[in-house]
Amino acid sequence: MYFHILKMSLRALQDNKTRSVLTALGVIVGTAIVIIVLSVGAGVRGLILHQLSSITPETLWIEVQIPLKGTRAEKDAATGQAISSGVQIKTLKIDDLDDLKKIPNIEDGYAVVIGQEKFTYHSEEKRAIYWGVSPQYQKMENLKMSSGRFFSMKDDNSLSKMVVLGKDIKETLFGNQEAVGKKIKIKGQSFTVIGVAEQVGTKYFMDMDEMVYIPVQTAQKKILGQDHLQGISLKMKNKDLLPTTKSQIERSLRRNHHIDDPEKDDFVVRTLDESMEIIDMVTDAISILLFALASISLVVGGIGIMNVMYVAVTDRTQEIGLKKAIGASPFAIRFQFLSESVVICTIGGILGIGLGISISWLVSFIAGHLQYYWPFILPTSSVLLAFWISVGIGIVFGYAPANKGSKLNPIEALQKT
Amino acid sequence: MSGIHKTYHTGSVQAHVLRGISVEIKKNEYVAIMGPSGSGKSTLMNIMGFLDVHDAGEYLFDNRPVEGYDEEELAEIRNKRVGFVFQMFYLLPKMSALDNVKLPMLYANIPEKEQEERAKQALISVGLEDRMHHKPNELSGGQQQRVSIARALVNEPKVIFADEPTGNLDTHSGNEVMEIFTRLNREGKTIIMITHEDEIAAYTKRKIIIRDGLITSDEINHSQK
Fold it and tell me: Rounded CA gap, A111 and A124, in Å?
């Protein structure tokens, strides 16, 4: 009996193809969003993790912040605002790095200043971001050279005017020519190219191949005219000693910066765990937002289905009356209309799943073309979730109209014209 | 049944349609219920045929009171114990004659193969063996009514109710339909029919006349056609 009623439902839907598809639109969009949220969400996570893949559990990152009471997020927000409006925090110095390296569990570290300048070679010029870093950068970030060498401690300490070029900026300035040994101009001063890096790709969301590396002290004194840093990267020998090491770092920096109240710290020590928490927080927030959108679309779709099913019950009152007169039970009538709404929603759900998969794939395909590592991940759970949600909507929103139909008085329904 | 009352409420208007009907119809009777429009004859038949429920009185069907039945049980009685033939046929327009006849068996959970066989037999018995796969709109009125008789018969009910079954038919088709009912009665079915035509009533064995919700006449027809 159920099979036959189901067949009748399918036929009823076929007779109203356009209406059925329009009805299912809300469900199609809703399930597509569910798939996109879960698939693209997984892709974004993959992308972020890949960008940060050089951060190991041993890595610690120290950067400046505005001294402020409040939560981590509030401090980060205030610092971002202050820096973008030109406020500088000048307290983090090379001396701090030297002191931090004395902590037993610290294996090595490098200092960072970041800037942007115009780089000129003969008639070729290019604006690029440069990283002023300590010589330890090469080893700690595993930077490979395609020609020449990276700078040494001696180069840094003697404020030598030399640069290492990323692969792409070397090609912009020199084309196929040999670059090592040539001189380029920065702010009117001559710098010698001593090396060219191998291709790196994007890292920390920056295109490292467009980057110029300069010895940190040279960058401070000869280009920026400052003696503070933007950040310090440290590597621990043993990651299990993180809590002790972190408090040793904080104590050392507070001593150097004459701070006795931790609330007034002008620096922050970041760890991989913290970064992961932030990433999870961001991706979760995006997911919640999109899920809210998906829910709205699904509820709207469900109400659409309910509306159409009420119309169907009214349209077919006489059919219901006849079926009841020849012995259809209320249950059979309910089953008939419920199966119609479930079939609409299920078909809508399947179309939506297809649409969602296509869009997710397209996103990762385009991102891949733009040189981002964006894996196409389709969690099985997302497909199952989307499918069952659409079936559930058919049941939940189809029940009331089906129930109304099942309760009609047979003779009154029959005589309705 | 005895002392049957039925009142319809439409807004503030009350229509006391049945005012105490008492009648007994035995197995294998062939009854015509007659009366002017508004007399309550259709209401009486709908109550007898389980399409409607009376407000007061007692109705014994097969020696059992029907007042306690719930919706699912009523559906089963309508499905298996009685068959209905309507003036307007009420065939489902998108289904073939055969599928229309199969419909009651669908709700009786009869296996597909048996449904097919029994529906064909029923259509043959009303003389429509060459019209099985036609849709209702491809059939004449008489043919449509014969399909609906086949549908009423297919679950082998003991009683068949017919509400002006010839009301929408020409005389020739009407006579054909009446001959089928007469044959069915001879084969043992109880037939209860509403009509306002004396020629149609002449086919039956008993004539009940209703006026203003009461039975005014109930007599045996000694000159059955």
Answer: 30
pLDDT the model gives residue B1: 66
Tens digit of each residue's pLDDT (9 = 90 or more) over A114-164: 989 999 998 888 899 999 999 999 998 889 999 999 999 999 999 999 999
Tokens 């020629």 belong to which residue? B199
**Domain containing residue B43: CATH number:** 3.40.50.300
Q: Which residues of A touch B90 (CB under 8 A)?
A: 318, 321-322, 325, 414
DSSP codes joined into one string, A312-331: HHHHTHHHHHHHHHTT--HH
Given a contact cutoff of 8 angstroms between Cβ atoms, the answer to whether A112 and A103 are in contact is no
Tell me which residues of chain B have a pLDDT lower than 70: 1-3, 9-11, 225
- Contact with chain B for residue A414, Cβ under 8 A: yes
Contacts of B71 in chain A (CB under 8 A): 329-330
B106 and A335 Cβ atoms separated by less than 8 Å: no
| Whole-angstrom distance, CA of residue B128 vs CA of residue A79 | 89
What is this model's ipTM?
A: 0.90
Into how many domains does chain B fold? 1
* Structural domain contains residue B148: yes
Q: Which of A395, A260, A398, A362 is CA-nearest to residue A39? A: A362
